Amino acid sequence: MPLFDVIGLGGEKVAVIIDIGEAYTKCGFASEVSPRHIIPSCVTRNINGKIFEEKISPSSVTNSTDNSLYGTLRDFIHHLYFRYLLVNPKERRVVLCESVLWPTKFRETLAKVLFYHFEVPSVLFAPSHLMSLFTLGISTGLVMECGYSETSVLPISFY
């Protein structure tokens, strides 16, 4: 990021974009044309000398408790902000590109982590299928998303 990245924006810093996937997470800034980092969607923890690797996956939410999911997401988002993006989370808005098929529990826990622990100013959950049409500038389309563990096809039409 340039040192004076807010001069042309009237004091408003660009938003952080996060796209959490089944295997990889893409993160970067709103003014950039590509993700700044693509990292594995997992957290490595050292507990009593043993190393555990926990996956960050919306599909594995049913197997975890609220506290373990909160702790895993907290560590993962901390890792994103302070190791890869190198920005203060209190100064930047967040855009989360999410699938419309994410469980509500995962979405709520992620919002709780961002608002309560990191104190971000705002969070926008943007449907990833809709975002692909925005880049093309069209209002209707059949979006096929090929992911790590599944492929989803959704018809999109908005006015």
Structure overview:
- With 159 residues, this protein is an alpha/beta fold.
- It has helices spanning 66-85, 104-117, 128-136, and strands spanning 16-20, 24-29, 37-40, 42-47, 50-55, 94-98, 123-127, 140-146, 151-157.
- It has a single domain (16-131), classed as ATPase, nucleotide binding domain (Nucleotidyltransferase, domain 5, 2-Layer Sandwich), CATH 3.30.420.40.
- It contains three helices and nine strands, in the order βββββαβαβαββ.
- Helix 1 packs across helix 2.
- The model has no long low-confidence stretch (mean pLDDT 86).
Layout of helices and strands:
Blueprint: E1 16-20, E2 24-29, E3 37-40, E4 42-47, E5 50-55, H1 66-85, E6 94-98, H2 104-117, E7 123-127, H3 128-136, E8 140-146, E9 151-157
Parallel strand pairs: 1-6, 6-7
Antiparallel strand pairs: 1-2, 2-3, 4-5, 8-9
Helix pairs in contact: 1-2
Number of strands: 9
Helix content: 25-40%
By DSSP (H or I, 4+ residues per run), the number of helices equals 3
Low-confidence residue ranges:
none
End-to-end C-alpha gap = 35 Å
* Mean of pLDDT: 86
The chain-level structural class is: alpha/beta
The fraction of residues assigned to DSSP E strands is 25-35%
**Sheet having the most strands:** 5 strands, mixed
**N-to-C order of helices and strands:** EEEEEHEHEHEE
CATH class call:
Alpha Beta
The CATH homology group name: ATPase, nucleotide binding domain
> How big is the Rg?
17 Å
**Total individual domains:** 1
Order of strands in the sheet with the most strands?
Answer: 3-2-1-6-7
Shape: globular
Oligomeric composition of the shown chains: single chain
The second-level CATH architecture is 2-Layer Sandwich
